[in-house]
Description:
By secondary structure, the chain is of the alpha/beta class. The protein has helices at residues 20-36, 66-78, 88-93, 162-176, 207-221, 244-264, 276-287, 292-308, and strands spanning 55-56, 84-86, 96-98, 105-119, 122-138, 142-144, 179-182, 188-190, 195-198.
Amino acid sequence: MATATAIRKPAKSPKAVRTVRDAAEETTKKIIAALEAGVVPWQKTWKSLGADLPRSLSTGKPYRGVNVFTLWFEGIDKGYKSNHWGTYRQISERGGQVRKGEKSTEVVFWKIIEKSEKVDGKDRVKKIPLLRLFHVFNADQADWAEGARLPQVAEPLEGFDPIAHAEAVVAEYLAKGPSLSHGGDRAFYRPATDHVQMPEFADFVSAEAYYSTLYHELTHSTGHDSRLKRDGIADGTFGAFGDKVYSAEELIAEMGAAMLCSVAGIEQAATLDNSASYLAHWIKALKGDNSLVIKAASAAQKAVDRIVGTTFKNEEEGGES
């Protein structure tokens, strides 16, 4: 008598899992491509609608860290006018329909999980980062039903003075932070004396150029030993031009300046010379370290938080989904 043979279904191929490392590599590739085309993504020299940071369609809160630059860059590249982003489901829940063929943008979110453990008989709290990836669409990538719940971009108040606001953004930090003086023809931060030196206001081509430069130097100052204790600042030196510490710190300062300009509602003026050698330096630095841009953006976000006095829970470092 023949024995029945069980028919087995072919095993399903495991789905490809995207990791945060993949996201870092993809983000870095996009930035390198922009640099090779002569565009510096972290120099935001345009005004977004409402001069605002990218915001979550779900919560209305701003995105943070590298997501700010990912969404800024994608928005300007595609010509989106909205600064609101959401997942496919979030858009659907608000009466929108993502158009067929539209491609999402990948953003990174992470939470900090605290776990108690014993080390040498002593209780210790271990912080474990939990990383996740989300795919979001800009509000302009969807068609919206009449009466759809779309967030409104706040209009500037009547009589709003962006330059006065740019000053107010950093006033409290300067009152308790590094010393600041004007004169000479150089702008720099000196860690040893915790001092920012700026040329006279009238020497800049515009008020925006002055505040972009000031924000760059103030971002450097947050790394001081009495504040965030960043490598290259806390030990009193930026490192030599082109080395890893120097590259990271300059990228942090550029990103911090871009974020602060957006908070202030002004266009960012380029604070560094965008020469061929400058672009080549960044291309080489980013090709050598896929994690540089994400780490620098995270550090820049912490610097901006310190300057403007905002606080966020650690478990929301990546922003809002």
